[in-house]
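Input (structure):
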């Protein structure tokens, strides 16, 4: 009996050495010290011993019980101390480590800003497909197949069997004028941001893919004065409330009359510098009164409804705003460039 108690003591102490945390310590206690544990089981055998052997065996069993209990308490204290040390070695007043955070692309920022300005003027946002029909991209915008204006839009055509020469990557966001007008009746006030594609040589001011923001307002009684007021308000919101805004005649097939909108140079104040190419003025967008042919084409009566349309390039706005010299920087995925705008 005494041998078995001593064996149990050795085994238990050995197992206790391996208990490294509160859970394993509790498992150990249940296994050896609890009422249904190994030691209690052994002690129950005391009654079967001859009277002469019982006192010595009982004494030994008690010694082992106390030894295991005190060893258990010591390990328990050690685990608790270690836990507290870990807890107090963390300085909870230190700021947390920041994870890497993405930022918005400069063109995304400008697009959002443009859309927000027009949003305050009552324009809602719409989007349209980047793969477009010739009829929406050109014909219904008053640009028939033999029109010279097509030369200005070097076009990516999609090679689709049976649809040769009919499907393309939109060269401007203007097809959405048609898409919106054929969907709804006036009043219309909408801006359409999106990507457009041109098949052309890439250089510091030309990319094969870039953004445009299209705008359209159609209602009874809209005049050139509305166009001027709206676009001047926009120009001052984007480039500074003190800006002077100039409208001068320009040609776009889908408007009549057409205008180019320019602001006085914010860099030199009008005296002439590199930003304004010495002219004192910076072109920021094209616009005009929606051509009667375009209105008729979507079933609007041009005697009843009039409207104005405009289009501008967010990359150009970003280049002006941030002094970016080369449009290719936007889409070359150079993080050193992009991080400057975070
Ligand atoms: Zn200037």
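Output (sequence):
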């Amino acid at each position: 009996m005494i041998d078995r108690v001593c064996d149990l003591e050795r085994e238990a102490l050995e197992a206790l050495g391996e208990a490294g945390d509160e859970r394993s310590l509790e498992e150990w206690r249940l296994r050896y010290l609890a009422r249904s544990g190994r030691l209690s089981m052994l002690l129950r055998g005391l009654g079967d011993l001859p009277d002469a052997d019982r006192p010595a065996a009982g004494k030994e069993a008690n010694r082992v019980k106390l030894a295991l209990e005190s060893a258990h308490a010591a390990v328990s204290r050690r685990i608790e101390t270690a836990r507290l040390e870990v807890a107090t070695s963390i300085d909870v007043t230190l700021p947390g480590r920041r994870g890497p955070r993405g930022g918005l692309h400069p063109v995304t920022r400008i697009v959002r800003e443009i859309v927000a300005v027009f949003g305050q003027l009552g324009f809602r946002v719409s989007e349209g497909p980047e793969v477009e029909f010739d009829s929406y991209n050109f014909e219904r915008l008053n640009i028939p197949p033999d029109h010279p204006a097509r030369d200005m839009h070097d076009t990516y055509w999609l090679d689709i069997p049976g649809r040769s020469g009919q499907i393309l990557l939109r060269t401007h966001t203007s097809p959405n004028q048609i898409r919106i007008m054929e969907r709804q009746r006036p009043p219309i006030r909408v801006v359409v941001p999106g990507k457009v594609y041109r098949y052309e040589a890439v250089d510091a001011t030309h990319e094969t893919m870039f953004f445009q923001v299209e705008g359209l307002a159609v209602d009874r009684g809209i005049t050139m004065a509305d166009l001027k007021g709206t676009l001047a308000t926009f120009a001052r919101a984007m480039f500074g409330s003190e800006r002077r805004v100039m409208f001068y005649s320009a040609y776009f097939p889908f408007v009549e009359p057409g205008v180019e909108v320019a602001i006085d140079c914010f860099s030199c104040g009008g005296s002439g510098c590199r930003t304004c190419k010495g002219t004192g003025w910076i072109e920021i967008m094209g616009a005009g009164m929606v051509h009667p042919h375009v209105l008729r084409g979507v079933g609007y009566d041009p005697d009843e409804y009039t409207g104005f349309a405009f289009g501008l390039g967010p990359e150009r706005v970003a280049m002006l705003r941030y002094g970016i010299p080369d449009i290719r920087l936007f889409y070359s995925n150079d993080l050193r460039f992009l991080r400057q705008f975070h």
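Notes: The first strand starts at residue 124 and ends at 125. The mean pLDDT is 90.
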